[in-house]
Design brief:
Largest sheet: 10 strands, mixed
Distance between the termini: 35 Å
Number of helices: 6
Strand content: 25-35%
InterPro entries: PYST_A
Organism: Plasmodium chabaudi chabaudi
Order of helices and strands: HHHEEEHEEEEEEHEEEH
Number of strands: 12
Structural class: alpha+beta
Shape: globular
Number of domains: 1
CATH topology: Alpha-D-Glucose-1,6-Bisphosphate, Chain A, domain 4
CATH superfamily: START domain
Protein name: Fam-a protein
CATH architecture: 2-Layer Sandwich
Length: 291
């Protein structure tokens, strides 16, 4: 039985980026100054108290982008990605109720958007002291997601600053599944002390896959005009891995009174229908780990 959901206004086709969510403003530095001196990376403000930004900078300094124009375009793209993520997280038009886990306070929805599947997972994590831990568990871009270490391998392919990177991720749905991969821009944005957004989207990234298939972002149109070249690994250049494409994916994490509210949205081309199960298990393993 479908769940009755009130309508929300649809996102305009062309929407100006809200100033308060500009990445450069949140970081506290203009984009074109981030590349003159790598020490300025330490000024980026987003949970820096845990040393994560410093670690990311030190480990990936050799991947730092030195092209200010590219960095500015990356920021613009991710600003737009924030808008789309928040829209699909808040929008209830077209979503179908799929499953509810009362014990975990978790609900899964799914809809079709211009011929593509969008899945949304909402849950309440009743431990507001775990707000920062939750962010770190789902963000850290230089390692496989700690929620799925066995099935996810991740590394930074290019760094604009510690909170804005290009990631290369390999993953499989099960122990016996085949490895797939994608490249995507990923950003972590601290909207306020009680709200953080983590968002990913694939762009026009040349990874030298020989398939010749044209990949286009079906949700964020401007991503298709963001063109970069990546020095990919040999098995990708030989076509040994299946390529997937992130239209949009990300988390909106908010600290509420007594709990952490998490909304996860995902639309990835190249997933099978059984991927619905993986989204569910991602939520369970991330926020309710078995010790």
């Amino acid at each position: 039985e479908k769940q009755e959901i009130p309508e929300l206004p649809k996102i305009p086709e062309k929407q100006k980026l809200p100033v308060e969510q500009k990445l450069s403003a949140i970081y506290g530095e203009a984009s074109n100054t981030l590349y003159k001196d790598t020490k300025e990376l330490d000024k980026v403000a987003s949970h820096s108290e845990d040393g994560e930004n410093e670690e990311i900078s030190e480990q990936n300094n050799h991947l730092l982008c030195t092209n200010p124009g590219e960095a500015i375009e990356a920021e613009k793209l991710m600003n737009e990605a924030i808008i789309h993520l928040e829209h699909h997280a808040a929008d209830k038009d077209g979503y179908e109720f799929c499953k509810e886990y009362d014990f975990y306070s978790m609900v899964l929805y799914q809809k079709k958007h211009e011929g593509h599947i969008v899945q949304k997972l909402r849950l309440k994590y009743y431990n507001f002291n775990k707000y920062n831990d939750t962010i770190n568990d789902v963000w850290y871009p230089g390692r496989g997601n700690s929620c799925n270490d066995r099935f996810v391998k991740r590394k930074i392919a290019r760094m604009y600053n510690p909170n804005l990177v290009v990631i290369h991720q390999r993953y499989k749905d099960s122990a016996f599944g085949s490895w797939k991969y994608f490249y995507a821009l990923a950003a972590k944005i601290e909207i306020s002390e009680k709200k953080t957004i983590i968002v990913m989207t694939s762009a026009n990234i040349n990874d030298h896959n020989p398939s010749g298939k044209e990949y286009k972002n079906a949700i964020i149109e401007s991503a298709n005009s963001f063109k970069i070249d990546i020095d990919s690994e040999d098995d990708i250049r030989r076509g040994k891995l299946k390529k997937t494409f992130v239209n949009i994916a990300g988390y909106i994490i908010e600290k509420k009174l007594g709990y952490v509210d998490v909304t996860y949205v995902e639309s990835i081309d190249g997933h099978s229908p059984t991927h619905l199960k993986r989204v569910i298990m991602k939520g369970l393993s991330c926020f309710f780990p078995i010790n």
